[in-house]
Each structure stands twice: as C-alpha cells, then as structure tokens.
Amino acid sequence: MTVSPKNEYSQLRRKAEDLLSSETEKIENLSPSEIKKLYHELRVHQAELEMQNDEMRLKQEELESLRNEYQDLFDLAPVGYLILDQNGIVLGANLTLCQLLNRERKSLVKRPFIVHLIQEDFSVFFSFLENIFSGGKLKTTDIRLKRKNGKFFHAQLYGILVRTNNNQEPQCRISIRDVTVSKKAEETSLMLTQAVESVAEGCIITDPNQYDNPTIYANRAFEQMTGYSVQETIGQNCRFLQGKDTNPQVISEISDAIQERRTFQGEILNYRKDNTPFWNYLTISPIFSETGELRYFVGIQNDVTERNQDRDKLKLAKDLAEHANRSKSEFLANMSHEIRTPLNAIVGFSQLLLRRAQNVQFPDNSAQYLESISISGKHLSELINDILDLSKIESGKMFIDEENFDLTSEIRGIFQIYRSMASEKQVNLEYKIDENIPQRVFLDRTKINQIIMNLLANAIKFTPEGKSVMLLVQRCETDGILFQVNDEGIGIEKERQSAIFSAFEQADKTMTRRFGGTGLGLAITKKIVELLKGKISVESEVNQGSTFSVILPLKEADPVTDNDEQESFTGNRFAEDSRILIAEDNLMNQELIKAVFEELELPVYLANDGIEAVEMAKTIKPELIFMDIHMPKMDGLHASKEILEISELKNTPIIALSADAFAEEQKFAYEAGIRDYLIKPLVMEKLLPILNKFLRPRQ
After folding, report:
1. Which of 560, 608, 558, 600 is nearest to 582 (CA)?
2. Residues paired with 286 in a beta bridge
3. How distant, in Å, are the alpha carbons of 371, 452, 524, 559 from that of 413?
4. Which of 229, 530, 561, 675 shows the greatest Cβ crowding within 10 Å of its Cβ?
5. Which residue, 665, 697, 670, is CA-closest to 680?
6. At what angle do helices 445-461 and 407-424 cross, to 10 degrees?
C-alpha cells in the first residue's frame, strides 16, 4: 500500500518527540559547546525535513495531475470501460459507456450490470465472467446491450482479472465496443457470400492491384463449370481457361476493357480442366472504392454451349423453313402464272364476245354460255387471288395501303356488283349506310372492299331462295366503323363458329359439295381485319341465319375538289395514230390483246420477246408500252431498263402486263422504272384508266 507524504512526516515527528523526551536528562548535562553542536544538527535536520516536505508536496501535485489525466483518459476513451466485482456489480464506468447506454454514471455504479443485457444473452455474460475470474487471462465475447430507450446494440467485450495490492477482492475490468455496424456488415457479407455461392453462374473476383490481376475468389458454380477447384484457381489469371481455338479478337477486347477499367460483355470459347471446350457468356465489371480507386474485377460466367447449339438448330430450322417458304412462293408464283395465262384468254375472249353479242345475233343460249364462261373464269381468278392472299398474309408480306376515297360510293358500287349475284339466286339484297359516316375516309380501300365482298358473297351463297341479306354500315361510339352483314341463311352450330375462321374450314364438311368454295374466304377476311387492327365476330343460330360484324378504326379524310376526282372513262376514244407496243410471248394472249385494242379502234405493234421489244421501241418510238414480265431471250424487267436508257425513250410509260401477282415481282417492276402493273386476266375496267392517262384523245 502506498503511504502519503503527509502521514510519513507525522510519524517522523512522533519519533523525534519520543527520542527528545528520552534524551532530556542527557541534554541537561551537556556543555554549552555540545548544546550548540546539537542545535546545529537539529537545524540541519529541520532543513532536510523541510526540503523533503517540499519534494513530497511536488510529488503529491504530480500524482494528482496524473490521476486527473488518467480519469480523463478513462472517461474519454473511444470504448466503454467497466469495472465489475465477482457478483457482476458495477464498481466503475467511464463516460463513453454511459453514452453507449444513454445513462448517467450514478445509475450504473453499485448496481448489477446484467439489467442492461438482452435476456437471451444472460447465460453468455455469466459464462464470460466466470472464465475471467477463474483464469485471469484476457477473455472476449459478443452480447447485446440495451439503451435507456429500450433499443439494443451489438457489443464486443474484452475482460481481464485485476487484483489490488492490499489483497482486496479481485475485480474484472472490461472494455466495451459498439460493433453494430461491423456486425451488420459482417452479416451482409455473409449473406452475399452465401448468395454468390448458391447461384448457378460462375463467379470469380480478381485483384488488379496485384501483379497479373490474379483471382482471389471463386464460387462453387465456377468449380462445377470448369472442373478447376478453388485452390487451383486462386492466384491465377483467368487466361488459363483459354485454349487453341479461343478467338484472339475476343481476348484482345477483354484485355482492352480491363486496361480501360470498363465493363466487358461477350462470348468466349473456354476450356474445362479435362480440355473440353465450352462457350462462356462472360460479364466482367470493375468495382471502385468511394474515392474512385479500382479495387476489384468481378467476372460472371454462364455456360451457353447448349443455348448456342439450340440457336444453331433453330437457325438451321429457320433456314429450312425460309427455303421451304421460298419454294412455296415460287411454286405459287409459277402456278399463278401458268393458270392466269390461259385464264387471261378465257376471260378476255368471253368479255369480247359478250360485248359483240350486244350487236350480233348469236345462236340460242350462246350468250348465256358466254356469260357462264365469263363468270366461271372470274370465279377461278378470285380463287387464285384467295390462295395468293392467304400465302401473303401468312408470310407477312401483305401491307396496308391507305388512301383517301368516298366510302359511300365504294359500298354502292359493291352493292351493284352483288345485286345481280343475289338476283340470280332470288335472294333479296339490301344495304343501309348510317348518315354519320363521313363522306370520305383514309383507309385501305382494296382490303375493305375485299372484307365486304367476302362477307356478302358468303351470305348470299348460304341464304336460301326468297330470303334476305342486309349490309349495314354505321359509325361506332369508340371512333370506329362497323360493317355488318345479316343473312337469313342456314346458320352455324355453336361448336363450329370458331372453326369457320380457319383456312379450308366451313361450318359443315358437306358445305363444299353443296355450295362450293374452298373455305378460304372467312380465314382471309379475319386475317385482313386483324392486319387493319380490327375485330371480327359472328352470331348465328342454325336455320335462323348469321350476323357477321367487323369493327375497324375510322380515319376521316379531308373532302376533295372536283379536280381530284378520277375522270370518267365512259366513251373514251383515243387518237388514231397512237403508237402502242405490246411485248407478249404467248400467241393466244397476243390474239386477245389485238382483239381488245381493235374494240378500242387502236392499232398495236406486237413483240414476241424482250430483245424484239427493245429493237421495235427504237424504231416505232411508242407512246405507251405494255410489257409481259416473263418472256424468253430477255425478260420484261431487263427490256424495260434498256428501253428507258435510250435518251429518246427515257420518258416512255411502260405498263407491266403479267400473270405474276406477287408483291415482290411488282416491287422489282417499279424499281425497273415501270409505271403501273396490270395482272392477268386483263380486265377492261382496269385497262381503260391507263389508256386514258397516257394516250392522246381523239380530236
């Protein structure tokens, strides 16, 4: 035990007084010189005592200063300090601990420290104390402590046993740190590690701040993907996965991305430990510190070998499908051409004969036979158009071509066409147009005509004699237009109503035999409606009739002036000296064309192939050329290009006259400089507008 300077001085004084009292008699017998000597010695001792007293006072002040410094260090330490006895009673606590617990020191001292613990951690804390008091070595543990507001924080405790010099009971001195942040970071790190370890993608982390950017982490998926263990991977640059067939260009791109500290994404051919190749879809991302320093690169790896194999198979299948589709298109184009060529003669000659029958007396029933031939030819032509339309729709080659036109006039024209068809069956055909329908619309006229005509033809076909068919056109509240065809026909069973919109399907398998047709009309109609962003539906009852409804988006168009309207073709006659060149290799079609133009009192020049057409164009310098596309020696496209390259003929209008109805062929024709495209069989209603446009009228 340390003795203070003040106590030491008091003890010394008492000893001196006792000594002086015992020596009083001796002093009385001393001579004056001896007394003087003794007095001197006393004065010296007194001076020494005063000097010792001053020294002791300085030491006391120094100790007091050190004690204050210790107290400051104790209170202001960055960690909490706690002194406990063997029973866990608080003997002392610094200010940092008070701040951690949000309590005053007086509320801690001389009270059990356990009241500040989460109950679940009591046993951990008592075990910690027992280990300290039994062993005396530095011990550590983690517990949760409660603040005054009831919230807890994670604390890390370091404790050691301390014994005092006067054999008092031992004490436990503990430092306490708030490790909540680091605990959460540790939990987050553990969670992320477990997440990375559980993912199916390979993951590696490299350190670009070390030589050769070595791998410092690899997950289990990387082991499974490559066959290399984590131990074999750590410390290596990832290039060890590359092999003889790895693309050097990709290797260079990865190297550049790493050098430029940016992300890389792409496929690379890597090799497993057993030297089997695999396609690796690799993503390399740089990781920066808060201060912008590059810390790591993270590589995520996906084995896409099977996906690439599937992709190759799909590409092969796609190529085969496209080849088959091209073959089908070529077949349909060839069939269309081969069928339309004789059909052109059938329809054309029957029309000519019907026109002449008006002025010439034919034998009995001859005119009726001609009418039957003409109707059959047109029906066959429509059948070919249906097949081609379905093919174009399914291959995605049918497009929307919107124009400004008079919808009411168009519907009246369609009605006039189908009124005769209905009359032949003795079916009553009527139409009604809502007065709210705008005069002019901006829609695809051809496709709307096709929709209405298909629905009307279908309704008339299946409506018995004496019954009615009604075409209704009205405006919808949702800014759309409704085309509705009601019939009093045979109706459709409920279970067959969805099937009728499929290709080659009808309401009953016997319909083809009873009513004819292929079952393409409604399928094509539905696909055209969907192409136009519309909807089609049917309501029907057997023997009660059917109602087909089509709703299309409505786009109003600005009204046009009289100058915008097409000219009337009635009574058109052209200059007698008009020069018309026709290139046609089929003799039957040549005869037909000559006959058609004779009806119009127009002379024509005929060329049998493309080469002949070019030479004749140079000689006669025609005002108008009709060009067949498929001809021997030189086809119509090449012939047209050569003609238009001649300076004197560069502005000559060339009109395609072909049995090929595919859009691709028409596109190629327009690219070659052809002005318009007529599809065989030749129809007067389409020929006359072209003649009227390009030929001089008769004076």
Report:
1. 608
2. 297
3. 20, 11, 22, 19
4. 675
5. 665
6. 20
Cis peptide before 681 (omega within 30 of 0): yes
User: Is 654 exposed, middle or buried, given 0-12, 13-18 or 19+ CB atoms closer than 10 A?
Assistant: buried
Q: Which two tokens stand for residue 540?
A: 């029907």
Per the structure block, which two tokens stand in for 241? 């996965």
Tell me whether strands 202-206 and 294-303 are parallel, antiparallel or unpaired: antiparallel
Coil, strand, or helix at residue 697?
strand
Residue 644 to residues 428, 489, 615, 674, 679: CA-CA distances in angstroms?
53, 56, 13, 9, 22
Sequence-ordered strand ranges (E) for 179-315: 202-206, 215-218, 264-271, 277-288, 294-303
Alpha carbon distances (Å) from 68 to 162, 175, 183, 346, 478: 21, 20, 35, 125, 89
Mean pLDDT, to the nearest integer, of 501-505?
A: 60
Which position has the token pair 């990375």? 196
Picking from 141, 88, 95, the residue whose alpha carbon sits closest to that of residue 113 is: 88
Cα distance between residue 413 and residue 471, in whole Å: 13
**Closest to 458 measured CA to CA, from 520, 544, 369, 536:** 520
pLDDT at 279 over 90: yes
Q: How far apart are CA 332 and CA 339, in angstroms?
A: 10
Contact 636, 624 (CB under 8 A): no
CA dihedral (236, 242, 244, 248) in degrees, to 10, reads -110
Taking the C-alpha atoms of residue 563 and residue 332, their distance in angstroms, rounded to an integer, is 41
CA-CA distance, 532 to 443, in Å (whole number)?
A: 9
- Is residue 438 within 8 Å of 408, Cβ to Cβ? no
| The two structure tokens encoding residue 406 | 């008079």
* C-alpha neighbours within 13 Å on the C-beta side of residue 182: 7
Alpha carbon separation from 553 to 389, 440, 476, 539, 580 (Å, rounded):
22, 14, 9, 21, 44
Sheet holding 480-487, edge to edge: 428-433, 468-475, 480-487, 545-553, 535-541
Q: Please check the confidence at residue 560 and state whether its pLDDT lies above 60.
A: no
Angle at 695 between CA 690 and CA 696, to 5 degrees: 145
- The DSSP string of 344-394 is HHHHHHHHHHHHHHTTS-PPTTHHHHHHHHHHHHHHHHHHHHHHHHHHHHH
Q: Is the dihedral of CA 470, 473, 476, 481 positive or negative?
A: positive
Record the pTM.
0.40
Is-contact 695 623, C-beta < 8 A?
yes
Look at the block and give the residue holding tokens 């009192």.
601
Secondary element (H or E) of residue 624: strand 624-627
- Looking at the chain, the whole-number percentage of residues with pLDDT higher than 70 is 79
- Compute the distance between CA of residue 416 and CA of residue 394 in angstroms, rounded to an integer: 32
Q: What is the pLDDT of residues 413-467, one digit of tens each?
A: 778 777 877 888 899 999 999 888 888 888 888 788 888 888 988 889 889 989 9
Amino acid 254: pLDDT: 94
Cβ-count burial of 117 within 10 angstroms (0-12 exposed, 13-18 middle, 19+ buried)? buried
Q: Under a CB-based contact definition with an 8 Å cutoff, are residues 628 and 680 in contact?
A: no
Quote the tokens at residue 389. 């339309």
Phi then psi for residue 208, to 5 deg, are -70, -10
Each residue of 642-678: pLDDT tens digit?
A: 999 999 999 999 999 887 666 667 888 888 899 988 8
